[in-house]
Design a protein that fits this description.
With 167 residues, the chain is mostly helical. The chain has one domain. Helix content is 79%, strand content 0%. The protein is built from seven helices and no strands. Helix 1 packs antiparallel against helix 2, helix 1 packs across helix 6 and helix 4 runs antiparallel to helix 7. The protein is elongated. The relative contact order is 0.14.
């Protein structure tokens, strides 16, 4: 069991490292593209017709990739003050329940995101004229990353094992 756990955590670490680099590149592309769009519009009095759409799609991908990345670090938006006011035992139970909820949310994102992606395969974006499925694919991929990272968080912090110790 320990060996499987280590392999899984190393796999998630490698995936997150790649995702971190992708997030860096997406953000750099978005900032650069937006800068050139503003420069062209206000200095050169011309516009790059596809830049706003591309920046929006880069941001969509960034948000969904970062969702999985943040779930591994337990940095999702939360009401931490509630759990910090609780004693240690109920706090662990609450953290476990929250992580199970995040896994369920990730599964819903994956399933319905895949359905949504498949339903737009023959539609093209207005300016870039690429398949909308390339944009919508961020949803199920982000969902899968969220599930994998939430499970890794539970495994890494041994939340399941600590739940048994509370009884």
């Amino acid at each position: 069991m320990q060996k499987t756990r280590e392999i899984y955590l190393k796999f998630i670490y490698a995936v997150n490292k790649i995702v971190g680099y992708i997030l860096f590149v997406l953000l750099a592309m978005m900032v650069t593209l937006t800068f050139f769009q503003v420069f062209n519009r206000f200095v050169l009095s011309s516009s790059i017709s596809w830049s706003e759409e591309m920046s929006r799609y880069l941001m969509v991908w960034g948000v969904f990739l970062a969702l999985g990345y943040a779930s591994r670090k337990n940095k999702l938006v939360a009401l931490k003050f509630i759990s910090e006011m609780m004693p240690q035992g109920p706090r662990k139970l609450l953290q476990f329940i929250i992580q199970v909820g995040v896994v369920a949310f990730g599964l819903l994102l994956s399933i319905y995101g895949l359905e949504m992606t498949m339903s737009v395969t023959h539609q093209a974006t207005p300016a870039l004229e690429i398949s909308k499925s390339l944009v919508y694919a961020a949803v199920p991929i982000g969902g899968v990353l969220t599930v994998l990272n939430s499970i890794a968080y539970l495994v890494d912090n041994q939340t399941v094992e600590k739940m048994g110790e509370m009884k």
